[in-house]
Design goal:
Shape: globular
Structural class: alpha/beta
Distance between the termini: 22 Å
Number of helices: 13
Length: 282
């Protein structure tokens, strides 16, 4: 058996990125998302064994697993993911943390900052350079997740189903998705992983950004995030605001405009935390 490797995971509801350290150059692999809200330990174990293990370098044992994931601020969820990791790599050391800690380490390193995740879901915290000191509660995609892909996607579906889109946008939506009201309601209320389904409609926002109605959805949705989360940290006016996640990356110009409007110090925007996490754990 050759020298060991470290795995660094950044996991959301939709996908998980796995950084591999200790082979030659760092590489990043992908599997589907891991969410203790929607999956059992056995299901997570199956994802790791079927989707990740076959991609790992041959002849290398896994010595360390650093896993940052959604929903892991709750002890029972943290234990569930830990159990799945132990079942796949029983001899590895592991450190399982919530995704906010991963984002904070990736964006801030050992410096302080206000850190926000805007992906399928949304979350935020104040990080003092070592620990997540303050965290405005995340309420999930039904009660909260302002500014997230699920939140914005829900707005798209509301505009479509309420016939609020003008004729042009309504036609563009129907041409792209070929769906019905019944299919939408079935996917949202009866099928699993409704948050992923909703977040999928952010692509429609990206493709039609020039339309004033789309611009309104984006500006209002991201402003809701600022009002309900960023504004709750007094540190937001004195330290840099950092963002990560697909929504943050694709609509970073709007985030920058909101920071300028509210006279808040804009920091970094990363599409994913992985580059920063690899540097942190290297």
């Amino acid at each position: 058996m050759g020298a060991g490797i470290k795995l660094v995971a950044d996991s959301g509801s939709t996908k998980t990125e796995w950084g591999v350290l200790g082979a030659t150059e760092p590489v990043v692999l992908k599997t589907q998302g891991v969410s203790p809200y929607f999956q059992t330990a056995e299901q997570i174990k199956a994802i790791l064994e079927k989707e990740l293990v076959p991609q790992l370098p041959a002849g290398k044992s896994v010595t360390d697993v650093f896993f940052y994931g959604t929903g892991l601020s709750q002890p029972k969820n943290l234990q569930l993911v830990s159990d799945a990791i132990k079942a796949v790599w029983p001899d590895a050391a592991y450190d399982v943390q919530h995704d906010l800690m991963g984002a904070a380490r990736a964006l801030c390193g050992t410096q302080e900052g206000v850190v926000s995740i805007l992906g399928t879901g949304s979350n935020s915290c104040y990080y003092d350079g070592k620990e997540v000191v303050k965290n405005n509660p995340g309420l999930g995609f039904i009660l909260g997740d302002e500014g997230s892909g699920a939140y914005l996607g829900r707005k798209v579906l509301q505009y479509y189903l309420y016939h609020s889109f003008d004729a042009d946008l309504h036609a563009r939506f129907e041409y792209k998705y070929h769906t019905t009201k019944d299919e939408i309601l079935e996917s949202v209320y009866r099928k699993p992983l409704a948050n992923r389904y909703l977040a999928g409609f952010t692509e429609f926002l990206s493709e039609n950004r020039e339309h004033y109605m789309i611009q309104n959805i984006l500006e209002d949705g991201l402003n809701d995030f600022f009002f309900n989360h960023i504004y709750k940290y007094r540190e937001s006016w004195t330290t840099a605001l950092h963002f990560t996640g697909g929504v943050a990356w694709h609509f970073r110009d709007i985030i920058s405009e909101l920071c300028e409007l509210y006279e808040l110090p804009m920091g970094k925007v990363l599409r994913t935390p992985m580059e920063g996490l690899l540097n942190y754990h290297r």
